[in-house]
Specification:
single chain, 301 residues, alpha+beta, seven-stranded mixed β-sheet, seven-stranded antiparallel β-sheet, 8 helices, 16 strands, elongated
Length: 301
């Protein structure tokens, strides 16, 4: 089987490796290099670096319009977090279509940020689905799926890495069976569909109105990017790790309780473990509070 692979972030690399064990990869398609941080120097997507190291042909079309010509001669195209909507005419041009490794149990969490939304909702299980892309947003028929338990303290980056591994295993098992006619696509059920739109930096802000559970879930869901954050004395204050606490200060304030640094919420309390004041590196919350000489902090509205 001849295949194309479309992907961009590091989470797509395990599936690229898995595809290479079951197909001949004609081309790896990824997003163009782009400047990172304050530097104007373009940085390659992780998939580009991996594909080049492994000797695959790489192409970076500036728009989705350039994909059609690149997949003209393949039997199937595999997509993992490519980051662009593929035109319907291109989807229909490949004999076995475009097959997507999606990091949720469809139809739950259709969209760009399924891991983050699963954590924000407090889900205890999620999974990976192998599906055919169609004109809708993650609405195509499913070829196979695998349920995965979410760890009690697992954060988005850690969960994404685990799901990337499980998705690669599912791809290597199911794709040959699908192309060989041993697996038939199954339409998604109409019930239970939820949306998982891309998250923004604004979504990750913590305020005094957040419940204790909502704070902890946000810290887990937005780590490592964009990072849960609050505003203290007009400056951004990131929270990288936190757990529920039995007691603490009033809502919207941060104070020391015994050996712990605790944020008060309307219905409970949150112990801050790792924080990052603006302009500084991540640090233990106790070190940050020591630098304040124990002064109580208040979240800006």
């Amino acid at each position: 089987m001849r295949a194309a692979f479309l992907g961009t972030p590091a989470a797509a690399i395990p599936s690229l490796a898995a595809l290479a064990t079951v197909a001949t990869i004609d081309v790896v398609i990824t997003r163009p290099d782009k400047p990172q941080h304050r530097s104007a120097r373009p940085v390659a997507p992780p998939v580009k670096d991996a594909a080049a190291e492994w000797g695959f042909r790489v192409d970076q079309p500036p728009s989705a319009a350039g994909i059609g010509a690149l997949v003209a001669d393949v039997d199937v195209a595999v997509v993992v977090a490519y980051g662009r909507i593929i035109p319907e005419a291109v989807l229909e041009s490949v004999p076995f279509g475009f097959v997507n490794v999606h990091f949720s149990l469809l139809p739950r969490w259709r969209g760009a940020a399924p891991v983050q939304h699963a954590l924000l909702a407090g889900d205890t299980t999620t999974g990976v689905s192998l599906m055919q892309l169609d004109a809708g947003l993650d609405t195509g028929p499913v070829l196979g799926s695998l349920e995965v338990h979410i760890g009690e303290d697992e954060r988005a980056g850690e969960l994404t890495a685990r799901l990337a591994g499980h998705g690669a295993e599912l791809l290597a098992t199911v794709l040959p069976a699908y192309v060989g006619g041993r697996v038939a696509p199954e339409p998604q059920p109409r019930e239970g569909a939820t949306r998982a739109p891309a998250v923004t930096t604004g979504d990750a802000r913590i305020t005094a109105d957040h419940t204790a559970a909502a704070v902890v879930r946000a810290v887990r869901a937005f780590h490592p990017k964009p990072g849960a954050w609050a505003v203290i004395d007009g400056e951004r204050f990131k929270i990288h790790d936190a757990i529920l606490a039995p007691a603490g200060p009033p809502p919207g304030t941060i104070d020391t309780v015994g050996d712990a640094v605790v944020l008060g919420a309307p219905d409970g309390h949150v112990e801050l473990l790792t924080v990052q004041p603006q302009g500084k590196a991540p640090m233990p919350a106790e070190a940050w509070m020591n630098g304040r000489r124990g002064a109580v902090a208040t979240l800006d509205p």
